[in-house]
Structures are given as C-alpha cells and as structure tokens.
Amino acid sequence: MKVSVVKLSLTLLASSALVFVSTEVFAQTSETRAIQLEEVTVEGSQTGQGGDITADGYVATSTRSATKTDTPVLETPRSMSTVTQEQLEDRKPQTLLDALSYTPGARVGSYGFDPRYDAFTIRGIDVTYTGVFRDGLRQVNSPNGLFRLEPYGLDGITVLRGPAASIYGASSTGGVVDLISKRPTFLPFREVEVQTGFYGRLQGNFDLSGPVNSDNTFFYRLTGLVRDAGTEIDAVKDDRIFIAPAFTWRPNDATMLTILGEYMDSTTGGTAAYINNYALDAAGNPTSLSIGATRVFAGDKRYNDFRQKQGRIGYEFEHRLNDMFILRQRTRFSALGTNQEYFFAGSGLTRENNWGIVSDTYLESRLKTGAVDHTILTGLDVSRLSYVSKQGFGVVPIGTDPVLSYREDQTQTLTGIYIQDQLKWQNWRLTLSGRHDWLTSEFDSAGLEFDRDDTKFTGRAALGYVTDFGLAPYVSWGTSFTPNPGTILGGGVAEPTTGEQVEVGVKYDLPGLNASLRAAVFDIHQDNVVVYQVVDGTNQQVQLDLRSQGFELEGVASLTEGLNIQASYSYTDARIEKLTPETVGNRLTSVPYHLASFWLDYTVQEGPARGLGIAGGVRYVGSSFGDNLNRLVIENDPRTYLDAAIRYDLENINPSLKGLRFQVNATNLLDEDGQVCTSNYCYFDEGRKVIAGLRYRW
C-alpha cells in the first residue's frame, strides 16, 4: 500500500510503516496506483500496520515469515518468494493453487481439476498437510479435514523454500507457505464488489477497515463474501459464505494486540474425478495398471455434496519492553467439520471433525558484542491436534446416508523450544538457529490403539554477504521434522518425516529500480515421506525416501511507468530412494523437470486510454510420469496455459464515477484441459474460466 501526501503535514508513528496526516490526505490504493502523480510518496506496509509483509507493488522488501523478525528480503540468506497484495488484486486467484501458480518451484495441478483440497508440492515435496501456515502458526490438518482458503481474506503469501523447522517446528522439508490474513488499517478503507462468470457464478464481497475512535487506538476490519456457483462438472458446486472480522488495540507505541477471526461454510463435490480405464488380468479383472481417464464422471450428482464448516479465532500480541527487548505471542484455536458424500458402486460418507490450538511465544533481543550486531529469538511453541473420523459405505438408495461403521481418532501434542541468532558484521549476515521438539501421538483405529513418543532436534545455519551495490550471495543448511496425522498401509501409525537440505543462492536488487532477481541451487534428502497412491482402485498411504535436486530463477519488478513483471523458472529432479525395488531411482510421480511462468501487467499512463490495465501470463509445465513405476502409458505430456486480465477505472470517463473499477480475469484462456495423472490415477486439467467484477472503493 502507498500513501501519497498532497499537503505535507504528517507525523510518523513509531515502529509503524503508515502515516497519519493532519491535513488533506489522498489514499492511493490499487484502483489509482498505476497513475503516476507528481507528489511525495511515503512507502508503507502492505497490511497498514507494519505487518508481516512490506512491499512496493510486486516487490517485497521485508517479511517476518523467514526469521520471525523484520528482516529485509535481500539480507535473508534463504530462497523465498512473496505474493503481494497487488499481485492478488491483479490476478484474482480463486484458490491457494491459483495464487501460487506463478511461484518458482511450486507444482500445482497434479490432480487436475479438484476443488476439494489445495494439494501441491514445493521442490518436488508434498507440502499439502505439513507446509501450510497461517499468520506464522501451523495450520493443523487431519486426513480428510484440510482448511480451505479464501484468497480474498489474504494480504499476501510468503513462500519459504527448504526447511524452516528450526523456528517453526513441524513443517515440510520442501518449504513453508505462510498465509497472511488481512488486518485492520490505520486509514479508512472500504470496498464492495459484485462478480459473475462461467458456470452461473454470482458473488458479492466486501472489505471494510479503519479507525474506531478519534484518538486512533482502536481499529477494525471486516471482510466477507457470499458465492453461489457451479463448476465444469455439473455435480460439483462452488458455494461459499466467508466472514473474517479483525480488531486491533494500540494504546501506545510500545503495545499492540490484534484479534483475528474467520468463519467459512463451503460446499463443493465429494467426488471430482472421472472413471479410469484399467488393464485387465487373465481373469478379466481390473488391475492397478491404470491407462487413462475417460470423460465419464466417477460419482453421482444426486449424492455428491462435500460441505465443510471451519472457523478460527486467535490473537497476536506485541510489547516493546525497551529498545533491546520485544515480546511477541501468537495463539490460535481452530476447528472444522466435514460431511463428504460420494458414490462409487455404492454410497460413501465421511464425517470428520478436528480441533487444534497453536501458541508461539518468543522474545526478540537486540544487542551488540564488539562490532557484531545480534538479533536473538528465544521461543516456546506448543500445538495440539485432535480429530475424529467416521466413515461408512454401502449399497443404499441414492440420497440415503450409509451406516457409519468405521471410526478412528488421534491426538497429537507437539512442544518445541528454539533459539535463533542473526549476526550482522559489516557486510556479512550469519543466521544460526536450533530447535528441540517433543511429540506425543495417541491413535485409535477401529478399537486398536497405537501410541508413540518422538523427540527430535532440528537446526539451520546460513551465511550471506550483502554488497553495497545490491548483490547478496549466500549458502545455507537446514533440517526438518514432521509428524504425520493418520495411518499408513497396514494400519500402523505413520513414522515422522525427517529431511535435510543444502542450498546455495544469490539475490540482486537492481540499483535505482524497484526490481529484484533471485537464483538458488538445492539438494534435499527426505525420509519417511507420506504419499498417496491408487492401488487396485483404492487410495492408500505409503511412506518413502526421496532425494530432490534442482535450481530456481525468479525476477519481479514494479516500474514507475505502470509496468509490473514477474518471471520464474525451476528445474526439479525428485527421485525415489526407498519404496519398492522396482521404483528405486525412479522419478517421483507428477513432478516435472521444468516449470516456467511469465506475467506482464501494464497500465496506460496517458491519452484517451489512461487508466486501462492489460495483463497476460503464460505458465509452462513440463512432462512427468503418472506413477512411481514411470510407465510411459500414463506419462503426462508438457503443456502451456495462458491467462489474461483487463481492467479499467471508470473515473477516467467521468470523475463522478471515482472509485469504480471494472475487471475481467481469465485463466487457461486457450482451454487446455488435457489428461494429468498422479499416483496411478488420471484426471483432467481445469478448463477455461472467466470472471468479471465491478468494484467500488471509497
């Protein structure tokens, strides 16, 4: 967010990135951001509160997600990407997968069109269950209870590639995706929008924020939407009700408390797949050798609703004790309930409820020893997950629930203590961190109890050098530890996943330009990875060891002439080191060698078309194998997707229309909907989708 000051009379808030203006102020938000005015500009935090991401357009300048401290991106010796608020507004993603589709190393779409879960990999490693965090706290999930994301409720996303367990605890070796919720803004902000689009889509959303009282100590934000929509599969809905209240109390410059809440009720399809053809054995029975998907829907529209209700409530507290010490605590309680109907040679039903509480308390200490500056974190992180899953299947009349004949429940408690030291000496940046975790798991499956206790130390060391001209090479090493909810094949409790990574990279902020280039080379080893694969038509869990090697390139820029650019390329070679004899050395299913993307957004600055924004993007996904046996019969061909957007601020036609914007976004413009196979089952890509919206901001 930028605040352009028309009359210069302002007071900066201590430790805040926003300003209060004692005379006339013009808040430059996204509908006017591309019109370059001859005014003084004060850069501000994207959230309006000195929040987790500070960005200028597409380019993030600092983020707390990587170190839990306000550290410039250039000085953070690790590979990371940020999806800023401006990127979200320009691309209008509908899911987390959409939001990550231009991020290097992120493989989305492995399961084709499937709106039930946000399943994806980073650097070839599945992070669906263990890599998604919300506001710096792990998002607890259960086998069939994964929190759904509404991108409209986000301020931004930070993607940390590689292990982050030394400060975050249980998390994937592939990386951490930190979803940053919208928070109250110091200046008034209000918008409403209506949308329509393909498949009978009707949506209304609103976002209201600002101060509550005249002395500017209380602030609020209320974000919400209602949607009634279908999808390209008639039996799969895309209905949603979402509301997210937030409240901030800032009695003085040293203390701030923010309450963050959310409730969402969404309905999609219990089955979103197509019937697969199978090879037959000598007796004419189907084998596990899947050879492709048909266009025949695998479920039944009359019994296919997958309804999920979810909620969360939490707080973020910060108190600056003095110039040396800052105490922070983040705590969140979350819960969800699912009711998943599906039909496959009979009616199936899964009802699952989970509850989780996560709390992270840490002290930030800034001190100096000789010529070395230290930023030290010492923290305690505690989380607890409980879930109950009930399942039933039977041949009953369509629309009738089968008897829930199977039950399993599990409780996991994870406690971790950690310390991190960021050392700064001249141009050198050294980060050292370590954490010790204690895990307790109690699992009951159909009356059989499986309990286990685990303990693990994880660490990270990274060294960087920041030159005076914006070049910053670095090298890092880190380990990870991840408990896995649920069971694996055979009925036992899954072993915790452990991993290790070595990374070498470089970052370059171009002098005099709001542009950044980044590159990284990595080598990951991971043991006891939980993956899903289809065996004889049944989705089952297995554990394997893998090694992933590769490199990534990324460039982002927001230039003063109304031009935004984002480009990325990644090469990933993920191979199985341990599973079955016939799979050792094979490439991991649905992980392509090559991923590339390019997004260009331009807003006309002068002339009759002033204020017209045009954007286009291309995403390339290389070939991959559809199973871990690497059989050519279900190999995934390379494919290219085209996206586009157009917008216009109507005040350029008539000043009385100030605040009105018309915008159209299209994904997969050429309707590339080929077959994609993963873990021995085949799906189809999501086809073309177009959404038009009219927004009023005041």
Automatic annotation (TrEMBL):
It is a multi-pass membrane protein. Keywords: Cell outer membrane, Ion transport, Iron, Iron transport, Membrane, Receptor, Signal, TonB box, Transmembrane, Transmembrane beta strand, Transport. Residues 73-176 form the TonB-dependent receptor plug domain. Residues 249-669 form the TonB-dependent receptor-like beta-barrel domain. One of its GO terms (cellular component) is cell outer membrane. It is found in: Cell outer membrane. Gene3D superfamilies: TonB-dependent receptor, beta-barrel domain (2.40.170.20), TonB-dependent receptor, plug domain (2.170.130.10). GO terms for molecular function: siderophore uptake transmembrane transporter activity; signaling receptor activity. PROSITE patterns: TONB_DEPENDENT_REC_3 (PS52016). Residues 1-27 form the signal peptide. InterPro entries: Beta-barrel_TonB, Beta-barrel_TonB_sf, Plug_dom, Plug_dom_sf, TonB-dep_rcpt-like, TonB_sidphr_rcpt. One of its GO terms (biological process) is siderophore transport. NCBIfam families: TonB-siderophor. Belongs to the TonB-dependent receptor family. This is TonB-dependent siderophore receptor.
